[in-house]
Amino acid sequence: MSKISEINQEPETREEIDPISDHIQTIAELHKRAEREVPLHQRKIEEVTAFLGRPRFLFIILIVVVLWTVVNIMLITFGGPSLDPPPFVWLQGVLTLGALLQTTVILITQNRQAESIEQRRQLDLQINLLLDEKMSKLITMVDELRRVHPALEDDTDPQAEALKKTVDPHQSLETLEQLL
Is-contact 49 113, C-beta < 8 A? Predict the structure, then answer.
């Protein structure tokens, strides 16, 4: 049996490797680990932020404001003491305090999300640089094989020569800054 037919039959004799599933599993594990490291108070703040971002919260605010206004106007109309007569100073104060708290909670959540995005961006950059090094090495190896091939000995490929060089991130950043 030839080596090629052994290779072709190999997946039938062992579990098939699914690199996509492996990568998805790795990403899921990284995400779970990052979420486990989030402190309890941060998690609670993010739950509040999630609630504040739902349409239900908007309807609750609208209902409370309408009820507050209607109840206070009805009390004045029927001669009773109003808890917050127009221009509804207490309502304005409660809504202002609510807006301040809501803004703070959203900013806290966005700050953590920004940190998480920055970590992922750094990881992407590191992986891209590593892949660049690997691809340069592969191009170098293929070019060396091409050079030892009897029919291609004298051929040189200027594009392959250029691609053998890895990217210098510092030089790339300087060039980008000059162009911008």
Answer: no
Distances from the Cα of 98 to the Cαs of 88, 89, 104, 156, in angstroms? 15, 14, 10, 70
Find where tokens 């990881």 sit: 123
Residue 164's Cβ-count burial label (10 Å; 0-12, 13-18, 19+) is middle
For residue 85, give the amino acid letter: P
Torsion of CA 99, 101, 107, 108, to 10 degrees: -170
How many contiguous H segments (helices) and E segments (strands) does the chain have? 7, 0
pLDDT tens-digit series, residues 16-74: 677 788 888 888 888 888 889 999 999 999 999 999 999 999 999 999 999 999 999 99
The answer on pLDDT for 2 being more than 50 is no
Question: Six-digit token pair at 164?
Answer: 């053998």
Q: How far apart are CA 119 and CA 170, in angstroms?
A: 19
For the packed helices 89-148 and 40-52, what is the interaxial angle rounded to 10 degrees?
110
Rounded CA separation 73/170 (Å): 68
